[in-house]
Design brief:
It contains five helices and two strands, in the order H-E-E-H-H-H-H. The chain is mainly alpha-helical.
Length: 135
């Protein structure tokens, strides 16, 4: 990954500013997605035994108090940790990053194409598309 170029006198138009807002939204959703995946994994390990299914198929939280302060005993937790699908857990983190980067590349590519008349904006968007790193 190369460093982003210094572009003196860059003035972004309204559509470019909207595109930057969209990219920031993608970054925020990626952060939220990672937290959600992590919390889901931890809940499936430590609180998985606290969720029971009633005969009608509706899931009930048994005696709540935050799932009885995250449920079970050490033996059940140890078993849940060994049986957890860590491969899917880690691949979901990587997939989330790849999907977000693809969306950012798409936005940057469209903006680079759209701003072909302004060389400074085009350099900016091509750099974003190529994934440059800020110094």
């Amino acid at each position: 990954m190369k460093y982003c170029p210094a572009i003196v006198g860059l003035k972004l138009d309204e559509k470019s500013l909207i595109a930057i807002d969209n990219i920031n939204d993608i970054h925020n959703v990626m952060k939220l997605g990672k937290v959600t995946i992590l919390i889901g994994q931890l809940l499936s390990i430590f609180a998985g035994n606290a969720v029971k299914t009633s005969s009608s198929g509706i899931r009930l939280m048994e005696d709540t108090l935050a799932w009885r302060v995250v449920s079970s005993n050490q033996a059940q937790n140890g078993w849940a940790i060994t049986q957890s699908n860590w491969e899917y857990f880690f691949s979901s983190f990587g997939s989330l990053d790849r999907h977000g980067r693809r969306q950012i590349e798409t936005i940057a590519g469209i903006e680079a194409y759209r701003t072909w008349e302004d060389p400074k904006q085009q350099v900016f968007w091509r750099s974003i598309h190529d994934g440059c790193k800020v110094k």
